[in-house]
């Protein structure tokens, strides 16, 4: 969740990084009383995200700066559209400009890429979800951008749900079907009924032992399309069927058409490029 505290902290850290001892150019070249009227303009089409970060960057730099006509997160725009108007003391506007742009460009890039994935699978039942492959320190921002782009959030972090992978199973001593089922059932008892348990598998012959443990979801990792379809039929609604591994815009529709419930896509965050936005004089 993108809380007020997270927004304030991220912006403060970004401003401290960019101007640790002040903005030499603005302070020496720009008259103290100078004012500017600017517009946040899209250079290309996309889906907007990061409006609260834009406002906060200017607020922390100079509280008297006004941000108006700000479009909503999740709104689509075209090249040339005005996304916000920013007016106030020139020094403050120029000092905050790069931080405001960096954050909104990054988040809008994630939202835009997510929206493309969601549109590509709209004819199926599959939901597009993110992963933990996020920029360190910016996870809340990027996962918010996924949501406003129409996607779903997977685990926010390791504390949210249990995801058992092959190394976990090995550490649990799960060496065959019987020990796998027993280990997962014991884990389910320790976790309690409110905690989701997702188990990652990479072979169809692992399904029966995992299904027998009555887990919440099964992640079919790097499966062929044929094996994905077989896996979905095998699971038959007894757990959430999730596909992952090597998902791209070129492959996601075929993956979704196998009948999986969720497709997790690391590229939403680690592969999204920043959108081209600019702050232009009005």
UniProtKB/TrEMBL annotation:
Domain called Quinolinate phosphoribosyl transferase N-terminal: residue spans = 23-108
Q: Does the keyword Transferase apply?
A: yes
Gene3D superfamilies membership: Aldolase class I, Quinolinate phosphoribosyl transferase, N-terminal domain
What function does this protein fulfil? Involved in the catabolism of quinolinic acid (QA).
| UniProt entry keywords in alphabetical sequence | Glycosyltransferase, Pyridine nucleotide biosynthesis, Transferase
PANTHER family in the record: NICOTINATE-NUCLEOTIDE PYROPHOSPHORYLASE [CARBOXYLATING] (PTHR32179:SF3)
Q: What are the recorded Gene Ontology BP terms? A: NAD+ biosynthetic process; quinolinate catabolic process
Q: What is the lineage of its organism?
A: Bacteria, Bacillati, Actinomycetota, Actinomycetes, Micrococcales
Entry GO MF terms? nicotinate-nucleotide diphosphorylase (carboxylating) activity
Q: In which pathway does it act?
A: Cofactor biosynthesis; NAD(+) biosynthesis; nicotinate D-ribonucleotide from quinolinate: step 1/1
Q: What is its EC number?
A: 2.4.2.19
| Every Quinolinate phosphoribosyl transferase C-terminal domain range | 110-280
Is the Transferase keyword given for this protein? yes
* One annotated Gene Ontology cellular component of this protein: cytoplasm
Q: Which Pfam families match?
A: QRPTase_C (PF01729), QRPTase_N (PF02749)
Q: What is this protein's record name?
A: Nicotinate-nucleotide pyrophosphorylase [carboxylating]
Q: Could you describe the subunit structure of this protein? A: Hexamer formed by 3 homodimers.
Please report the organism this UniProt entry assigns to the protein. Answer: Leucobacter triazinivorans
Which InterPro entries does the protein's record reference? Aldolase_TIM, NadC, NadC/ModD, Nicotinate_pribotase-like_C, Quinolinate_PRibosylTase_N_sf, Quinolinate_PRibosylTrfase_C, Quinolinate_PRibosylTrfase_N
Catalytic reaction list: nicotinate beta-D-ribonucleotide + CO2 + diphosphate = quinolinate + 5-phospho-alpha-D-ribose 1-diphosphate + 2 H(+)
Family, as annotated: Belongs to the NadC/ModD family.
- The EC category is transferase
